[in-house]
Amino acid sequence: MNTARLVTASLDDRFSLSRLPDDLIVQSEGMNSARRQQWLAGRALLAEAIFTFTGCEMLPAMQISPQGKPSFVDPSFPYFSLSHSKNCLQLVLCAAGETGCDVEQMRPRPRYLDIAQAAFSDTEFQWLLGQASPQTAFWQLWCLREAWLKQQGGSVWQMDRIRLDPAAGKFTTQPDTDSRLWCGVRGAVMTAVAVPEGVMAPEEYGFDVGSGLLISQTQRVWAQFDIAR
């Protein structure tokens, strides 16, 4: 199945917890309030998405990889990745293989050029400087890296494992992977998604607070990045 689905919600949405197993509710009780809100919202959104797309009424059992990446124990359910920035919560689902998602509320960072010069390749940095909005370009490059690292189960400390050629829409990784990246903006929110090669731009859905349902959204303009061969 060469599709992915991206679901957007807010951490402030009133999610029903009725699709979460009791042990997950208990697990959250020792967290501080901010962490508990984020943790439960992500799992409640995931449960609603699984119900919408598969009909499973309770969130299926999950497991954690040695790298800390969660997945469903039952391989018939899709791969997934959760990300949040401030109050924006996003979930990507992909049945074709491992996926990663990163969302960022674009905001001024006074030293973003110093960060970019340290974290990005010279090709990326020079491209960023040539853009009409270098800060927007910064967030694009940052999100693409984060999404790929989440797909691989990596961390922010491994950002040098991926090198982007944004002008050509290509990238290389160490080690080689079969990934494809998508990146797009909606309002002040930048989103990047990493999926297996051949998977198209995500279908988009929003969480409707009133009904508790996932509603199809208008597709944003996505930029595609493929592995350089």
From TrEMBL:
Domain of life: Bacteria
GO molecular function: transferase activity
InterPro entries from the UniProt entry: 4-PPantetheinyl_Trfase_dom, 4-PPantetheinyl_Trfase_dom_sf, P-Pant_transferase_sf
UniProt keyword list: Transferase
Secretion signal span: none
Pfam family, one: ACPS
4'-phosphopantetheinyl transferase domain span: 100-164
PANTHER family reported in the protein's UniProt record: L-AMINOADIPATE-SEMIALDEHYDE DEHYDROGENASE-PHOSPHOPANTETHEINYL TRANSFERASE, PHOSPHOPANTETHEINE TRANSFERASE
Family of this protein: Belongs to the P-Pant transferase superfamily. Gsp/Sfp/HetI/AcpT family.
Protein name: 4'-phosphopantetheinyl transferase superfamily protein
High-level lineage: Bacteria, Pseudomonadati, Pseudomonadota, Gammaproteobacteria, Enterobacterales
